[in-house]
Every structure is written in C-alpha cells, then in structure tokens.
C-alpha cells in the first residue's frame, strides 16, 4: 500500500500512526485495488502454495475461521488453503448479499 498510496491516501486521514492503523485494519474492500497487481497475485499464489505444504490444525481453524471450522467438521469443505479461502470469500459475499436484500 505504501508503494501505491493513490489507492487509499484520500480516504485515510490523521497523523502517521492513525494512517498506519487505518492501512492495517481498514475495511476489506480496499483490497480490490491490489488483486490485479501481478506482484500481489504472485505473492498470494506463493502463500497458498506454502500453506499447502502444512496441515492446518483444527484449533487454529476454529479460532481464526470459525465458520470454515464448522463446515470442515460437517464435511462441507476440506482443510486445504484454497478450499478455506473460497469458503471465506463465499461467507463475506453472503454478508453483502444479505445487506442488499434489507
């Protein structure tokens, strides 16, 4: 984000510390500006590849991805990184879809 501030700087106000917090904990929709960047895509693919080499423990899954944990327990998803990511994306899209119906 620091190398491409044009995507966010007009939305984040305050001193350096406040802007750092906003960059770190801002709404997730800001990521849409970066997914098409080849460097970001390569890093995401490398992350998925690296995670594929490890088994994600159920206790970590339950702590950080509770909905996916229960889907895993019910056999609806496997514990592969891509399966978990896709499930999480569907979960977030579901929140937006529900808001559109309101």
Describe the structure.
By secondary structure, the protein is mainly alpha-helical. It has a domain at 35-100. It is 60% helix and 0% strand. The chain has 5 helices and no strands. Helix 3 (58-64) crosses helix 4 (66-73). The radius of gyration is 17 Å and the shape is globular. The model has no long low-confidence stretch (mean pLDDT 90). Pfam families: GatZ_KbaZ-like (PF08013). One of its GO terms (biological process) is carbohydrate metabolic process. InterPro entries: GatZ/KbaZ-like. This is D-tagatose-1,6-bisphosphate aldolase subunit KbaZ. It comes from Paraburkholderia ribeironis.
Summarize the structure.
By secondary structure, the chain is mainly α.
| Beginning-to-end CA distance, first to last residue | 33 Å
C-alpha Rg, in Å? Answer: 17 Å
Largest sheet: none
Task: Output the number of helix runs.
Answer: 5
Rounded mean pLDDT is 90
How much helix is in the residues? 55-70%
Find the structural class using helix and strand composition: mainly alpha
InterPro entries: GatZ/KbaZ-like
Pfam family, one: GatZ_KbaZ-like
Protein name: D-tagatose-1,6-bisphosphate aldolase subunit KbaZ
């Amino acid at each position: 984000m620091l190398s491409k501030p044009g995507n966010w700087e007009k939305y984040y106000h305050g001193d350096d510390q406040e802007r750092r917090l906003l960059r770190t904990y801002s709404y997730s929709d800001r990521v849409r500006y970066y997914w098409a960047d080849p460097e970001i895509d390569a890093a995401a693919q490398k992350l998925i590849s690296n995670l594929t080499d490890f088994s994600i423990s159920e206790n970590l899954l339950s702590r950080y991805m509770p909905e996916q944990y229960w889907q895993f327990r019910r056999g609806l998803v496997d514990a592969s990184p891509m399966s978990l990511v896709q499930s999480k994306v569907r979960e977030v899209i579901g929140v937006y879809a529900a808001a559109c119906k309101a």
